[in-house]
Design a protein that fits this description.
A hairpin with a 3-residue loop joins strand 10 and strand 11 (199-204). Helix 7 (281-290) packs antiparallel against helix 9. This protein is α+β, with helices and mostly antiparallel strands and 500 residues long. It has helices at 2-23, 54-61, 108-119, 168-178, 225-233, 247-251, 281-290, 293-299, 330-339, 357-368, 381-389, 406-409, 411-414, 428-439, 443-460, and strands spanning 31-36, 63-64, 66-68, 74-76, 79-86, 89-94, 135-142, 145-150, 164-165, 189-195, 199-204, 217-222, 239-240, 256-271, 305-307, 346-353, 372-379, 395-400, 463-476, 479-480, 497-498. Strands 13, 14, 15, 16, 17, 18 and 19 form a 7-stranded mixed β-sheet that branches. The chain has a 4-stranded mixed β-sheet with strand order 1-12-11-10, covered by helices on one side.
């Protein structure tokens, strides 16, 4: 009798194990619902960059030469392989099994067309900044081979080529006015519908070269945050960027979960050093010592940041963990102000976006404790950007995202003659090192150059480095194989599927 019972228990365990295994097999079908705070301004692939939620949409329906997976590695897409015969030549071999959503084959002609539009000084393209100064010409070697010729060696060039490939025939047929509302791509999902101010829907592309995605559709819903939060908690929304103050509701919910990974963003106070008192390095250092970053991370960001010591994010190969740091030390801040001749303290203006007021108010209080009176000026984002670009500020709070290569965090902001330079900062040694860093392909040499730059910046503080971002996503656990994309360069929805 015991043997029979044992056998029955064993058989039941095997049946349960088998059913669990079957349930965990990816399933086709279903629609995933994602909250988008607003519609993108356009679905024009030449202008998609820089828009909220547009990155996710673009990687759904567009083809790219390659993508960057969540581990930071290049992964082939339209280009099945690539090579560098020399330091100024890049050759891309285009795959022969990639088709646009209208059935036309993607070829080198489409790639060259896309590059030429992005390089055209008379054509409005978001992507021109990273390529026009570096690419001399683009050639179609044959139907599936493209050669890019650079003016001079530029090590980060691959990262500047992360833009969609646009079908030449469809663009010319539909025209610039209609194409953004009837976009044709070659990604795993194709455009289905756009109800302005309501939803944008993409559906699975059956003929995607890597196989059709598991999901039937991905729907981006234009919803205000409070409505979206209630829908998320009720199970009517699958993905939502939950505010830090609401995370406890997610963590306590049996069907919701959170994914966190180190991010590619950094947050700082930009410093205008053209006039007193901020032209004195000791004053900038005093400000840095007076800020209790960890308090802000714990109370405002609920742990979704980490303390920063420079502009290069910790997950980058170029990050230097050994530079000078500024742990919270109000006493040292006061002494530095006195050394600089400001025994009675100083008054400075701090501009920020309206969404950053809470964290800036904490900094305002912290600096007030050491005699630094902060006049906080919240601004609409566009006006803040305009003032920053014209150096109309003393301090400003900003962030940089998608740091794929250290060139984005160093060369563009701390070299003397760049249009994104932080308030006229100029250091000949930084210029020299930054230039060397983009002209060599030796990763060890590049690391040495960027390490020294970070040491200089940590001493001189042309910016008060505050936080490195943590990339966090919240989702309903019916969504399987959920992942987050810190580089904003990957098709995360391509690999997801829905549990019954």
């Amino acid at each position: 009798m015991k043997r029979i019972i044992t056998f029955l228990i064993l058989a039941l365990c095997l049946v349960l194990a088998s059913s669990v295994a079957i349930a965990e097999e990816p399933q086709y079908g279903g629609r995933i619902k994602v909250r988008a705070a607003e519609d993108p301004m356009t679905l024009n692939p030449f202008m998609l960059g820089g828009q909220a939620y547009a990155w996710d949409m673009s990687y759904l329906f567009n083809a790219y030469l390659f993508v960057i997976n969540p581990d930071g590695e290049f992964q082939p897409d339209a280009a099945v392989s690539w090579e560098n015969p020399d330091d100024t030549t890049m050759i891309f071999n285009i795959r022969e099994d990639m088709y646009f959503h209208d059935g036309e084959q993607l070829t080198a002609e489409d790639v060259v067309f896309t590059f030429e539009k992005n390089l055209d000084p008379d054509f409005a393209s978001y992507w021109h900044t990273g390529i026009r100064d570096h690419i001399e010409s683009v050639e179609m070697i044959d139907e599936f081979t493209v050669q890019i010729n650079l003016y001079e060696p530029f090590a980060p060039m691959m990262y500047n080529l992360l833009f969609p490939i646009v079908p030449k025939h469809a663009w010319e047929e539909k025209g610039e006015d209609d194409f953004p509302y009837e976009p044709v791509g070659a990604g795993p999902f194709k455009f289905k519908e756009w109800s302005i101010d309501e939803r944008i829907v993409f559906e699975a592309f059956e003929d995607f070269y890597a196989g059709r995605p598991y999901l039937d559709e991905v729907e981006f819903l234009n919803m205000d945050y409070d409505t979206a939060l209630m829908a998320f908690l009720d199970g009517d929304l699958d993905v939502l960027a939950v505010a830090t103050e609401d995370l406890d509701m997610v963590e306590d919910h049996p069907e919701l979960d959170v994914v966190q990974k180190p991010g590619t963003s950094w947050y700082y106070l930009g410093v205008n050093q053209n006039e007193p008192p901020l032209d004195d390095k000791r004053v900038r250092q005093a400000i840095s010592y007076a800020i209790n970053r960890q308090e802000i991370i714990d109370t405002i960001f609920h742990g979704a940041m980490e303390v920063a010591t420079g502009p290069i994010v910790p997950i980058s190969w170029a990050h230097n963990p050994d530079v000078r740091s500024y742990p919270y030390n109000p006493g040292k801040a006061v002494r530095l102000l006195r050394e600089a001749g400001y025994e009675d303290g100083i008054t400075v203006e701090l501009k920020c976006s309206s969404g950053a007021v809470a964290s800036m108010e904490v900094i305002q209080d912290q600096l007030g404790l050491v005699g630094i009176d902060v006049e906080l000026v919240p601004m609409e984002w566009g006006l803040l950007t305009e003032d920053v670009n014209q150096d109309k500020f003393q301090l400003h709070y900003r962030a940089w995202t998608r740091q794929t290569d250290p060139e984005r965090g160093i060369n563009r902001q701390f070299m003397s003659d760049t249009n994104q330079n932080i308030a006229g900062y100029s250091n000949p040694r930084v210029d020299e090192l930054a230039e060397k860093a983009v002209r060599t392909f030796d990763i060890d040499e590049r690391t040495e150059y960027y390490h020294e730059i970070q040491e200089i910046l940590a001493e001189e503080l042309p910016a008060i480095f505050l936080f490195h971002g943590i990339h966090r996503s919240t989702y309903n656990t019916r969504v399987q194989n959920f992942d987050t994309d810190p580089y904003y360069c990957y098709r995360v929805y391509q690999h997801m599927w829905l549990r019954d």
